[in-house]
Amino acid sequence: MMNFIWVGLVVIAVIAGIFTGNIAAVQEALFSFADTAVEIVFGLVGVMVFFTGLMSVMEKAGLCEKLGKLIGPVMKVLFPDVPPEHPAMSSMALYFAANILGIGNAATPFGLKAMADLQTLNKTKHIATDAQCMLLAISTTSITLLPVTLLALRSSVQVEGATEVVGPIILATTISTIVGIVSSILLSKTKRFKLENVIEKEKLAGTLEINEAYVGKDAINL
Description:
Radius of gyration: 22 Å
Oligomer: single chain
Number of strands: 0
Low-confidence stretches: none
Distance between the termini: 36 Å
Strand content: under 5%
Mean pLDDT: 82
Shape: globular
Order of helices and strands: HHHHHHHHHH
Helix content: over 70%
């Protein structure tokens, strides 16, 4: 989808440049910012490698499990259907930590692993559980206390004032996370989106697919 959006923006810019007689300026900006993009990418490599490596060390050192236990009380409230000792807890803890630090690229592998771990608690193949929906809501609206990637980007194009966005980002992401969590809880309790009702609807329609990887003892029988 993003590829189509970017191509569309480029096409619109070229068409606008042709009709306004500024196609030369569009061409100059295109090549100029292409060079800038490469410089920014290389500038981010060091930051991303450091934090990705840090997360890997934390995982191998067993700090993931300790982090999971540390935020266990909060996780139990947000994910009541996930057993405290389940691997998904530590995966989600790492994922949230990376998101809080604002390093989205480093967070992605942990997010994928967390979702895969949660899938082992899903009775179905294609219907997201309440825990999976909550994970997605939190990751999308995640509180960001230290936007590392953004600060690296701003520092690469401006010397002063790179950190002036930290306060507004903390406020905005805190509000968005609260809204995301509350919305996920409320929607999961409505008749239309309640998991049991969705499963029953798919079952009656004959489109329900069972998850063979489910590790629970109360699997669905078709």
